[in-house]
Amino acid sequence: MTEIFAVFISPFEYSFMIRALVISVCVGVMCPLLGVYVVNRGLGFMGDAMAHSVLPGMVLAFMLGVSPFLGAIPTGIAVALAIGYLGKSFRVSEDTSIGILFAALFSIGLVMISLSKGLSVRVEDILLGQILGVSNTDVIITFSLAGLVLIIIAALHRQLVFTSFDPLGATVIGLPTRWLDYLLLVSLSVVIVVSLQAVGIVLVVAMLITPAAAGALIARRFTRVMASSVVIGVFSAVCGLYLAYHLDIPSGPSMTLVATAIFVLAVIYNQIRADQ
After folding, report:
1. Is 199 a residue whose pLDDT tops 70?
2. How does pLDDT run across 210-240, given as a tens digit for each residue?
3. What's residue 236's pLDDT?
4. Residue 54, pLDDT score
5. Model's pTM, two decimal places?
6. What angle separates helix 222-247 from helix 2-9, to the nearest 10 degrees?
7. Distance from C-alpha of 167 to C-alpha of 264, rounded to nearest angstrom
């Protein structure tokens, strides 16, 4: 019993693990919360593209020796607005504009990495996440951004749900659907940036989509799906953090695998319930 207790408590004898826990909880809450809207609107590819597209901003920030947030957040917001603008103002489909920006910006980021000398971070940490290296400043910025996104979602939840299920009806009754779409994209970009240090560029979409998809299999009402997704997300993030610490593996893959295992269990549960 004492040994089991030590497994759970011993990691938090270190300050870096406490910081990592705060980041993990923020990721576990924010990713599934936005992920429910992403799944409902079929924006999974957009989330993946936006995660990859912030690479140039992150690399530039590392090259300048400043917080990656200072490079990734403006880049993410700019990409989100550009995707929305291209999709609505030109004869270019949303998937096409996403694919063009995704490929171009990710390539620029990779070129910047190859040309930079003495980069202060490993490429693997950017792509797969390294939550154990976050600073106190990162925690404050992450907590603040997560709080801002929560306020936006709480204030505009009904409008966002309406535009998700019936965009034409929302336009007819006078809701500013275009600006709501932009706001959702900007919020999504912020959440993606917040999550990058935990799960990395490659796997951030997994924490957006997988807990939300599992929650949709467990619950039916939209608010219950959101609640279930957040519970799954927090559990996956925290459990993945323990695995990353004890097994000495990257945090992103461990969190993703936990979330995927829960999704598989949700699929089995949903099938059993359907057969009864």
Report:
1. yes
2. 999 999 998 888 889 999 999 999 999 989 8
3. 93
4. 85
5. 0.84
6. 100
7. 32
Q: What is the 3-state secondary structure (H, E, C) of the chain?
A: CHHHHHHHHHHHHCHHHHHHHHHHHHHHHHHHHHHHHHHHHCCHHHHHHHHHHCHHHHHHHHHHCCCHHHHHHHHHHHHHHHHHHHHHHCCCCHHHHHHHHHHHHHHHHHHHHHHCCCCCCCHHHHHHCCHHHCCHHHHHHHHHHHHHHHHHHHHHHHHHHHHHHCHHHHHHCCCCHHHHHHHHHHHHHHHHHHHHHHHHHHHHHHHHHHHHHHHHHHCCCHHHHHHHHHHHHHHHHHHHHHHHHHHCCCHHHHHHHHHHHHHHHHHHHHHHHHHC
Average pLDDT over residues 202-215: 88
Given a contact cutoff of 8 angstroms between Cβ atoms, the answer to whether 46 and 98 are in contact is: yes
Q: Report the CATH number at residue 143.
A: 1.10.3470.10
Q: What is the mean pLDDT of residues 232-253?
A: 87
Sequence-distant (6+) residues with CB within 8 A of 177 are: 163, 167, 170, 171
Q: Based on the structure, what is the number of domains in the chain?
A: 1
- Contacts of residue 23, Cβ cutoff 8 Å, sequence gap at least 6: 131, 134, 138, 139, 142, 197, 198
The domain in which residue 9 lies consists of 2-275
Q: Which among 52, 73, 31 is positioned nearest to 127, based on CA atoms?
A: 52
pLDDT tens for 59-117 read 888 888 777 778 888 888 888 778 777 766 666 676 777 778 888 888 998 888 888 77
